[in-house]
Amino acid sequence: MKLIIVESPTKARTLTRFLGDKYQIEASMGHLRDLPSKKLGVDLEHNFEPEYVIDKKKQATVTKLKTTAKAAKEIILATDPDREGEAIAWHLEYILKDTAKDFKRIVFHEITENAIATALKNPGKVDLKLVDSQQARRILDRLVGYKLSPLLWRKVRRGLSAGRVQSVAVRLIVEREQLIKAFVPQEYWEIKVELQKDKINFLVQLIKALKNKAESQTTVNDLEASEYQVKSIDQKTLSRHAYPPLITSTLQRLAGNRLGWSAKKTMAMAQHLYENGLITYHRTDSVNLAQEAIEMCRAYINSTYGKEYLPDQPNFYKSRSKNVQGAHEAIRTTKLTVSADELGKSEQRLYQLIWQRFVACQMKPALFKKTTLVIKAQGVKAYELKAEAEKMEFDGWMKVGDGFKQTEVNLPKMAAGDKLQLVKVLPEQKFTQPPPRYTEASLIKELEKKGIGRPSTYAPIISTIQDRYYVEKDEQKLKPTAIGETVTLFLIKHFDTIMDYDFTAKMEDDLDQIALGKLKSTELLKNFYLPFDTKLIEVTEKAERAKIATETTGDKCPDCKEGDIVIRLGRFGKFLSC
């Protein structure tokens, strides 16, 4: 009997569907070993050697796997194709080493019959460089969290914690909130003019924005007495290309913007789709597509929409984010025809987004005719006004939807020199707007842009900073709490290196170098920990205690009638207090 071990029962059932009784397939239920929860678990005196322990809740799983492994003639480790998956495989090999069996490692990026068959024909060994990279990340995070949290208890408030990447994410939100609070709106006026030609009314806008009401009123009076004629009219054809195939960050942003989902929910639904063999692996930052997938997609486009929608050559895309790990494929569907009966309602919605993006990315561009109209108004002064209109000439990739909404503006036929009739002048007072608060989607985009985090970490980062009450949602926008702001400012003041965006991105890059075998994990850990520990001692001895600003509700206490009702943070979340 040959034993295949995967992470989850769902994944095990899908493999069983393809492999039948040729193999026995068991699930590890995720990680079996980790650092201990109640102590550091890292030997600082001996090259940061980790101390791994088996989770008590996993003892029954370990016992079952050992028993099954003893009866197997071969053990195949089929965990996910990323750092965490490689680490799980390595831990499994360690736990089952006493069975003295031959271990093989197989990797596939989609759970389909062909992908599994190919992987089984080409087994390898556990990638120790990738494991070393995962282990270095885990130790880094443990050092920061385990060492900084007690300091925050002493200097800010009991029960607080810090994270290497999470704290930097909170910094982004805090700094955005500071910009919003410091923002001073500036008044300006826009003037639109409604004109008529051949009994067709249309709007043009004054190119220059005006500073105040007085300037606006003077301009309005002059425009109402002006004569209007076409100065120029320009037409050109625009091509709008399809969006690139989905990666983890763009999937999370798309589901957030289109479906209103959290990153956590998106990844849970994607996990289910992947484990059931319906999409490729969903933790990826590569926009590459397998040649077979491109051929399948092009054949589908040709048969469904016609050859006029199929480009002569496949469309290829290049990743734009920093620190791209290109070994994976983009997120796509494994086939192009799936019955709705196979999916739950939420899964259907996410699957449809992935399907649309996959098909659209291999279709021809959409074509538009863009008209730019410049109008001259002659009064006491001369003014220029402008209008733009677009008309779709070929829908291209938009045929499949993919959420692109095109609003067409129709203009009457005109030529340079044509006279136009004034209908009315429409002044509107406006004010400049502060930068918006981050949504989950826009925060993920910013983290990716700065090279902070990885596909597997975006959703946990965003969940963690909310679970710790450092950040809360206000109308789906992320807002720092008083405690989140206090902790962030304390860490920036005393641990500016750890809180630096470029430093955090450099750490991600160094972890990639470890995975490639170009950097030793011990070197990275020493370079990080020695100055960090020195700073920790200094801050513990010298830093003053930080004071948390009180959040008020604006209401008086209903009991004493004098005290203000304030928001406090306790063990179980927020509560109101006098």
UniProtKB/TrEMBL annotation:
Signal peptide: none annotated. GO terms for biological process: DNA topological change. It is an enzyme of class 5 (isomerase). Pfam families: Topoisom_bac, Toprim. One of its GO terms (molecular function) is DNA binding. InterPro entries: Topo_IA, Topo_IA_2, Topo_IA_AS, Topo_IA_cen, Topo_IA_cen_sub1, Topo_IA_cen_sub2, Topo_IA_cen_sub3, Topo_IA_core_domain. Keywords: DNA-binding, Isomerase, Magnesium, Metal-binding, Topoisomerase. It comes from the Bacteria. It catalyses: ATP-independent breakage of single-stranded DNA, followed by passage and rejoining. Residues 127-537 form the Topo IA-type catalytic domain. Residues 1-111 form the Toprim domain. Its EC number is 5.6.2.1. Belongs to the type IA topoisomerase family. This is DNA topoisomerase. The gene is topA.
